[in-house]
Amino acid sequence: MSDEPRGALAERFRRLIRQTGPISLARYMGESNAHYYNTRDPLGASSREDAGDFITAPEVSQIFGELIGVWLADIWTRAGRPDPVHYVELGPGRGTLAVDALRSAARFGLRPQVHFVEGSQALRRVQQQAVPGAVHHHDLSGLPGDGPILFAANEFFDALPIRQLVRTGDGWRERMVGLDRDDLVYVSGAQPMDAALPAELHDAAEGTVIETCPAAAAIIREMARLLAAQGGAALVIDYGARSLQPGETVQALRAHQKLGIFDAPGEADLTAHVDFAALAAAAHGQGARLLGIEEQGAWLRALGIDARTEALARAAPAKAQLLARQRERLVADDQMGQLFKVMGLAAPGWPDGAGFPA
Ligand code: SAH
What we know:
By secondary structure, the protein is α/β, with parallel strands linked by helices. Helices cover 37% and strands 24% of the residues. It is built from twelve helices and 16 strands. The model has no long low-confidence stretch (mean pLDDT 94).
C-alpha cells in the first residue's frame, strides 16, 4: 500500500541525520509509527498466514469489548442516563472493540454518538466499514461540547512517541538517534538533562534509562479537561506499570516477532510501556477523578468474563475449547492478565466504576 519502496523511510532518516545531526527518539518513533499505521492494517492473529504484526485484546475475543460496553453503560446508568452522550475511542484499530462495546451497551439503552480519533487513513477506511455512523477526528480538539463523553482507548497510548534519558559518565543526557556509518544507532545528546530528573535519580548507575511520553501526558490532560467540563468517564487499557520504573521498554514488533527498533523503521510497530502513574497524575491535575488502576485479568473477572465465557460456550458447545483459550489469553498472569492495566477516570460528581476496588 505504501507509495515508497521498502527502506525509503530509513534512507530519509539517514539523510536527515547526515544533514542536521542526531534526532530525538520521539521524532524517530513518531515518524516511524505514522508511516507504519498509515500504510497498513497491522492487526492479525498469530495462528493465520497473512497474520499481521500483532494482536490485541478486542481481536482475541468479543467478550473484551462487550465488558467495556457493560462498564460504560453501568456508569452512565448510575449517572442518570444523560443524553446526548458521546462515545469517543482513541486509536480504534479495526473498530472491533467499538462494535462489541456498542452492541452490548445498546442492550442497556446506551446508544451514544460515535467518534473515532484516528491518524491512519488505512485504518479509517476499515473503521468506517465496521461502524458506518462514526465521525473521524485527528485529535480531541474538534469533539462536540454538548454532553458527557465516554472515552475508550486500548493499546493507543503505547504507540505514542516517547523520549528517553540516559545516565552517562557526564550525567543525564537525552538519548538520540544518530549514525554509525550507515547504521542508525543510539547516541547521547550534547545538552545536560540533569535538571529534568527527580533528585533521587541524579546518582543512578551509568547506563540507566528513563522513558517519558509527553504526547501521552498532553492527550490525557485534554481528556481529563473534557471530562471535568462535560461529564463522563474513561477507560484506558494498555501494558505497563502502575508507577515509573527505570528501564528501557521501547520495542519493535513485526509478524509477531521482536526486532531491533532501528531494523525496519516504518515497517514494524514501535511501542513502549505506559506509565500509568504519570497518566493518573496528569488527569488529576485537570480535575478528573481516578477510579482506579487494576490489572486486566482481575478487572475482566470482576466484570464477569467467566460467566460470559460459559454462556457463549453453552450456546456453541463446539467452540467451548476455543472460548476457554481466548479467556485464558486475556486474563492469565503469564499472558495479558497482569502486564496489562485498566485505568478508570470519571468526571467529578460521576459515580465509581465497576471492577475498581474502592
Ligand atoms: N485499539 C485497537 C488498535 C490498537 S493499534 C485494538 O486494540 O485493536 C494503535 C491504534 O492507534 C491504531 O488505530 C493506530 O492507527 C492509532 N494511532 C497510533 N498513533 C496514533 C496517533 N499519534 N494519532 C492517532 N491515532 C494513532
